[in-house]
């Protein structure tokens, strides 16, 4: 396995519960900062005028379902699950978006030929399995960097899908999702998608819990086999996620870009995919992932100034801040000698900068929002500089850089 994959695997520390507490606390603080203001902007749950009838009540309920639990169980959660599981093994799977797009196109094409819903979804998952197996074999057998392998396969898959689909979205025939439209709940399509995603997530949780109960030698196979399996599972989840997109949208978009929505890696990193190590930590990461997906979604919608309304930029800022915050957590926990106070100060400044930037999205008035942005970025940059000084110049003797 390449050097990059060795370095990206989360490192097991002597007292992992401290890091777990701080990682969960970081996500909880971000959720407490972002979610209350965002939910309050959604308005009242029910209409005040009962005479308007049940249709508006139902529309209100559907709106809330789509915005809160609907975001936590969006099809992006399946992509984030696959990305996180691969990252836990040291691999960066940059093909999740392309595989999702190809899975959606494959499922839509099969439905257009008269194939029913379940076989079409299975075919999308099988396509993802094949791509994941190719990626995994290239990394484990040929010792190629996972980021390069998966990016190359994403580009190739995107070009193939564009050529076959002619660059046009593929609509899903109305009758193909009829079984979901007749479901005994409202709104049937939204809740059907939520149930599918939540069901897959629940199965992952059960499998991980069962694996953690096994003896260590059985639960952890050889690293190459573990990585191959993780990349195959990532492909399956990505292909199935693309098929779930069809339930919401009614068509399969054909993307011309191999890299898509950055909420996927942002949520995985927020949940601790690249940082929390030890037995049971993969289970903890997947448990936190739906909340992390909601936080990443709200951050993406609310945080950056209107003059910089780039959704990719907002997610990229969150990714960078999360990485630095987790490095600061490790730094603070490992510095028990002369620079302990500096490491804790760096952690406090970095986290405070993230929280201030998150709160800025709900400040009314351009001047106030700019002030919050300046304070947040200033604090975060100061914390990052202290972190660099603490790690590079004031580390205790005999303590290597991690």
Individual helix count: 17
> Largest sheet at a glance?
2 strands, antiparallel
Strand content: under 5%
CATH topology of the largest domain: ABC transporter involved in vitamin B12 uptake, BtuC
Widest β-sheet, arrangement of strands? 1-2
Q: Termini distance?
A: 19 Å
Regions with little confidence, pLDDT below 50 for 5+ residues: 47-51, 397-402
Helix and strand run: HHHHHHHHEHHHHEHHHHH
Radius of gyration: 22 Å
How many separate domains make up the residues? 2
Shape: globular
Write up what this structure looks like.
The chain is mainly α and 402 residues long. It has two domains: 3-20 and 54-302, ABC transporter involved in vitamin B12 uptake, BtuC (Orthogonal Bundle), CATH 1.10.3470; 307-402, no CATH class. The protein has 17 helices and two strands. It has helices spanning 3-8, 16-40, 54-67, 69-72, 75-88, 96-112, 117-140, 146-165, 178-181, 188-213, 216-219, 223-249, 263-270, 281-302, 311-334, 340-360, 366-392; strands spanning 170-171, 251-252. It has a two-stranded antiparallel sheet. Helix 5 packs across helix 13 (263-270). The longest helix has 27 residues, at 223-249. The radius of gyration is 22 Å and the shape is globular. Mean pLDDT is 86; it is low at 47-51 and 397-402.
Question: In brief, what are we looking at here?
Answer:
The protein has 402 residues and is mainly alpha-helical.
List the helices and strands and how they pair.
Layout: H1 3-8, H2 16-40, H3 54-67, H4 69-72, H5 75-88, H6 96-112, H7 117-140, H8 146-165, E1 170-171, H9 178-181, H10 188-213, H11 216-219, H12 223-249, E2 251-252, H13 263-270, H14 281-302, H15 311-334, H16 340-360, H17 366-392
């Amino acid at each position: 396995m390449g050097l990059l994959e060795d370095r990206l695997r989360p490192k097991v520390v002597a007292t992992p519960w401290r890091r777990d507490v701080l990682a969960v606390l970081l996500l909880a603080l971000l959720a407490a900062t972002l979610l209350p203001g965002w939910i309050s902007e959604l308005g009242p749950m029910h209409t005040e005028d009962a005479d308007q009838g049940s249709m508006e009540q139902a529309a209100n309920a559907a709106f809330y379902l789509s915005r809160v639990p609907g975001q936590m169980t969006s099809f992006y959660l399946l992509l984030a699950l696959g990305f996180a599981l691969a990252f836990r093994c040291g691999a960066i799977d940059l093909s999740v978006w392309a595989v999702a797009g190809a899975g959606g196109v494959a499922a839509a094409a099969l439905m257009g030929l008269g194939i029913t819903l379940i076989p079409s979804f299975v075919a999308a998952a099988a396509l993802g399995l094949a791509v994941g197996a190719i990626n995994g074999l290239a990394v484990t057998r040929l010792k190629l960097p996972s980021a390069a392998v998966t990016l190359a396969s994403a580009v190739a898959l995107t070009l193939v899908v564009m050529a076959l689909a002619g660059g046009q979205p593929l609509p899903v025939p109305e009758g193909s999702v009829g079984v979901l439209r007749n479901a005994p709940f409202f709104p049937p399509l939204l809740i059907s998608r939520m149930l599918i995603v939540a069901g897959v997530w629940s199965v992952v949780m059960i499998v991980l819990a069962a694996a953690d109960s096994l003896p260590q030698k059985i639960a952890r196979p050889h690293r190459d086999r573990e990585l191959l399996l993780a990349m195959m599972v990532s492909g399956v989840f990505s292909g199935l996620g693309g098929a779930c997109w069809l339930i919401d949208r009614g068509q399969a978009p054909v993307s011309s870009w191999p890299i898509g929505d950055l909420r996927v890696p942002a949520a995985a990193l927020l949940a601790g995919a690249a940082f929390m190590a030890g037995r049971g930590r993969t289970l903890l990461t997947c448990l936190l992932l739906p909340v992390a997906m909601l936080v990443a979604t709200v951050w993406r919608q609310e945080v950056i100034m209107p003059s910089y309304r780039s959704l990719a930029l907002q997610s990229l800022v969150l990714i960078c801040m999360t990485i630095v915050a987790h490095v600061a957590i490790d730094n603070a926990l490992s510095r028990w000698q002369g620079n302990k106070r500096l490491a804790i100060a760096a952690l406090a400044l970095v986290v405070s900068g993230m929280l201030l930037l998150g709160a800025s999205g709900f400040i009314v008035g351009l001047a106030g929002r700019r002030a919050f942005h300046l304070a947040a970025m200033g604090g975060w940059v100061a914390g990052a500089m202290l972190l660099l000084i603490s790690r590079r110049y004031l580390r205790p003797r005999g303590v290597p850089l991690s």
